[in-house]
Amino acid sequence: MIEHVDQSLNYVNETTSYIQDTTSFFQNLPGEVEQAVKDSAAKAEFMNELESMQQRIEEINLLEPPVIASDVHDQLLQYNEQLLIHIQGLREQLPLPDFNPVQYFEQHPITQQVNQLNDLINPLEAL
């Protein structure tokens, strides 16, 4: 029984931390992209950050949730899939010479996915 409680607590803590970090990353994304377009050093650093975020998402997707968190984890997987699509799109588009960040974010709104991801904190904390 204590093992299940520990597993649940670890899952909740790790997933909550992930959601907070990921929400912050994606909320700051438009400004980071604008800077990357203007500065080649910032672009290289940002491309590394995108790769790191992609790895973080893939790692959290591999977590084995406790039974009581399976529904929340399923939602998390769905939202993460959308975030991975955004990351891949940026990794493909940002190096292009005619990349327009304003146009990109108009065509690929991300706010809804970030808000949905952030909304998972309450059900997680209720576990």
Biggest pleated sheet: none
Proportion of beta-strand residues: under 5%
Low-confidence parts: none
State the share of residues found in helices, binned by percent.
Answer: over 70%
Distance between the termini: 15 Å
Residue-averaged pLDDT: 91
Number of strands: 0
Shape: elongated
- SSE sequence, one letter per element: HHHHHHH
**From the alpha-carbon coordinates, what is the Rg to the nearest angstrom?**
16 Å
Number of helices: 7
Structural class: mainly alpha
Structure description:
It is a single chain. This protein is mainly α. It has seven helices and no strands. The two termini are about 15 Å apart.
Structure summarized in a few sentences:
This protein is mainly alpha-helical and 127 residues long.
Features:
127 residues; mainly alpha; single chain
Break the fold down into its secondary structure elements and pairings.
Blueprint lengths: L1 H26 L1 H10 L1 H22 L8 H24 L7 H7 L3 H8 L2 H6 L1
